[in-house]
Batch of 3 targets.
Target 1
Amino acid sequence: MPNTFITMQNIARTVLPLLKQNLVMPATVNKNYSEDFIGKGDTIIVEKPAVFVADEFGTTINLQNITEPSVAVKMDKLADVSFKITAKDLALSMPEFSTKYLVSAAQAIAEKINQDGLNLYKRVPNFTGTAGTTPSTITAFTQARKILNDNKAPLMDRYAAWDTAAEAKFLELDAILNAEKSGSTEALRAGAIGDIVGFKNYMSQAVPTHTAGTYTALTDVTASVNTANNGQLTDRTPYSVMSFTSTAGKSTGILKAGDLLTVANKKYVVLENAGPAVSGAISAKVYPALKANISNQTVTFADASAGGHTANLAYHKDAFIFVTRPLEVAAGKQSYVTSYDGITLRVTMDYNITTKETVMSIDTLYNYVCAYPELAAVILG
């Protein structure tokens, strides 16, 4: 008799909770979910949380004319785990099948989703710390807190993701080893560093390492911007075209998305790869967009000495949005789609008569939006 337990519905409903318990980044940011089925590569419009200003009440209210901001999101991230199974596998009980395949499949999908979320550092202009030096003191927390405070981030719902090296350093600090001092008994729990100076901190192996563009090694660079060349990326992120010039005039280096720089005491991030430079001159799209022209201002690149950095990330949940939509059920195949609490998943099984193999595929469609980059900070490591 065929196994009535190994069905696409049962598999999907088993994998989804496993996936959710391994998702860190989507659990700490805003989520945008709709039951509308779409395909990979479709572009949708997502509304960002509205921003208001509190007025002092006089004799009448001041009605604020708020246009809900929105961003365009290309749904082109498809996390997929596909594997061959046998008739013997299909005869297993659900607990056995889950142990053999589903637990590790959910972990792999979650790892990719978490990593893509942490790669949002490439849109964050504010930073603190020293590239190439692992954060090891409470200063790492307090300086990140200052950046969010200066940008008026709400005090609640703040998070920070640290790489394994930073976690190792932090766990040597008395304020974290003594859970009562960190304000949380979760400080010694796996993956959780504790609640420190207003951040819910966690360690993630998915924290990325940024390899800087070779142009950032230069220390003789000036920058100019003509705001007439300002524009928007396809996702509606505003940018300025910043022109860089090296005094030596010899560099053919490049800039990479995520390169960080300071001009006239203001921090910027490069949004897209640019270059190579021609005789030391190069232009790149940077965020935030400037409101006034600048000319021949001295540039300091964060990665000038180290050539890159670990991109630890502190953020308020409104800084980012996790966007997901259900995929359509695969036509003519055994397929099932399920969704819960802003997470969606599809399971499909197919038999290839040519190769005489049965393949199972588990996938989810999603992307992230950097809604308010000012509500986040990169802590260099």
Target 2
Amino acid sequence: MGFLRHIKQVLSPPKLTTRVVVREKPLHEQYQRIGGGLTPAQVSQIMQSADAGQPALMLDLWNESRQKDGHLQGIAYTRDIAVALCGLDFIELDDDTARRKDKKAIKLCRRIRDEFEDFDKLIEHLTGAYVPGHATAEIKWKKTKDGLLLPVGFEALSPRDFLFEQKRGKLRYARFPGDLEGVDLLAENPGRIIQIQRRITGDVQVREGLIRCLIWAAIFRNWSLKDWIALGEIGWKPWRIAKYKKGASQKDIDTLVEMLEKVGHLGVAAIPDTTELLVEWPKGMAPGTGGSSTHSALCEFMGREMSKAVLGQTTSAEPGPNGSRASDQVRDKVRTDIREKDAIAAAAVLLRQMFSLAVAVNVGDDVACPVPWFQTDESVDQLAFAQAVQALSGKSGAGVKLPAKWVRDEIGAPEPKEGEEVIGGEVEEPEPENDNGQSGKKPASKPEKEAA
């Protein structure tokens, strides 16, 4: 009861709409520009600073890498929204065991889900913890007209605003630039903060997440692309070679070089007849030869490494030239497994840090909060499923009896209510008519007493 009383005090007006710890940060504190021209040594220094508990620069480098690399943005966004696209519902108790308060609790949770502002964005923020290893948001509560105290919105807190304190390496919020210890937002603000910490790589918390793996792959792709573009400036242009006679003056040589530059840029130049001009294409790069580059192979390799780290496979992002449809489906199953694990982690933290508190405050602390779950099942091919059901249960099929509820659940169809207009179902065959035009169905026999 003491903890519940504390929760009610924290969430009650006027504290309901005031910040406790988190302050508005000016724009210059929200990010730092890393820019180009990085060397491997500089990237390593940024990683070492993150290992020492100050990951802000590493988060800035991650954001810039994602904004530069289309492939990285594509696969990261695919995983970010994967769980948010799944509907959230709550596990109901059987009607025989559910109490009135239990039904009230699940109704309350569904109301929170439906009325919560940008609920899908909250899910995206929480499931994005696979990159830095953690995600935090501030929950906004509001007193409703019917007297309930409900979470109605959130404000995402950037992972770069957090540090890892030196004594035990615990996650803390940095109150100001240069803060080395920070504060535990979740412990000091129960009900106001929702925070998730993931196990992705299995390392210590300060080194969790895929951020290091993805940054190095993105940096190598960026360096390769930069060299590739520079190569395109010289390597994919013909070599212009001019020969001058021995004893030519420096002025003649400079003039000759200027003419060669004009040939490269303008395609035209005037040279004296005493000069021999040669134009040669690099081997494999002449027009129509279909030349290739190791830069392309390196960029593709790093892209595949990113896909494996984020999605668990590569075929859903860029199908390869080899492999059958069956093998592609097996590899894509890895992606769905990752999505389900992300969904379980998000549902667990929503249960502990938001829905259970709302139920305790509004319904009672003696009521178990209904368990949230994401509908991550893949959609059923309804035509193929219908044909299978017909083959199993039809009169001309195997004659297997199937529960109608299971069939409806598989295709996502609700159970019809009593008196509701329906389509489908068994149709009674008409009875054959006799010679008098009447139905051949025999009338029901009268009871023995009535017959007597």
Target 3
Amino acid sequence: MYKFSLLSGVCVIAIALHAANAQQLSVNSATAKSVELTWTGAAGTAAIERSSGKTFQKIGPAAGSSYTDTTIDPFGTYKYRINTAGKFSNEVTVGPPPMGVSSAAPAPKGSDPAKYGPATATNLDVNGDPLIAFEWVDSNGDGDQADTEIRFVAWDRASYQWKQPVRVVTTGPLADQGVNPMAIACDRSNGNLAILTTAGENLVYATSTDNGVTWKTAPVSNSNGTPRAVSMIVASGQAYAAVNAETGATYYTGSAADPSSFKSQAVPAGAGWKIQNQSNIPMTVDQSGNIALAFYVDQQDADNHRYVFWRAGSSDPTVIAANAPADSPDVALTFGGNKFGVLLNATLDSNDTDHGVWYTQSTDGSSWSKPVRLPIDGPRSTNPPLGIAIASKGNLTAAFGSNSGSAGATCNSPAVSRSTDGANWTTCGIGQAAGADFNPQPPTIHVIEAPNDKAYVVWQEQNDSKYNPGVLVWHEK
């Protein structure tokens, strides 16, 4: 009986010690402004500790059961733990996506990687983290593209991982050959999200007021035949969109919450010119909130081609690059550092047809610099798809395809080129630093600049590597 009591006492003591040490810390919410922590099992002398590197430091007492940390860098990555007299809880990590490459949406096992993400669109949420919309062709794998759908994925700072992709809308086949058939936008005044996409001969507008958990869809009027390429910006409750369709391009404006309010006007190509319908029509906004577009036009009665720039509300567009023939015309437009930047595909040098990607910039949208070719770090081509972004201080990041060459690129792929002035560029791909062999010719690629001047590159990857096929994201260090 005595032995039984002693053993029982030992068991009771062990259970009590375990309960005292079972400090469980969790993240209730995490934004660019604050981190809200909750926990259980901490004693009165416990302290909350935080680390942004290797060393933890006390930031507050853990006498209660919650704590909100407002002393954070909006783009810092932090680890937290509870310390009770040298006994530590679990650690939690919060912050934006990690530096380097991560998989935002891995292709499901058994699916065809080429059909998972061949078209994508990206933007930034209210925290400055990437939002991604992407296409899943024939999602049930029965050989019929009628069930092709748009999915949405975003970063979760609280769980420090990409959320599970959410189905937004079933569209059927998209016109995604060399163009962007969807666009995604975030209204940073309220956090509401919007996606505009083609759907056969129609347009579909989807909105979400709960961070992309649920979506509401509605049609958008279209009178120019089959829509192909779209772009969109949403700000302060207003939506601005451009659609390049079979018989012309249209500029839309209206309430972001009500697509039936959208008003439309034709995008002018200029007298004697016609907008090439199988090409992108990117959109950007300058520091004054003015909307601008870039696009490719063909001469109606002669064999000439050019890229042009158009400010919404103006009459005729401004020429960006004249005499710019292109088998696969493509253009990317951005604004940052008080200048517009355009990346375009054309044969501007008849003696060098391998280098087809060129960059030009403007401070006013009227006068454009002489285009300069972007280099590749190997005997390869430069070609679409294209992505370009400018940081607030003027540094540039461009990304593009490289579909042919006599050897591989030194830095692997996809190709990323950097410049501080727009005139001198250095190209080095993502794959080598990531320790992976990526596809040199992704079907889709985008560059976007976060408010802390760190770029993101988003692309569809079909090669099998440690990151798996799917929609991948590279975050600049």
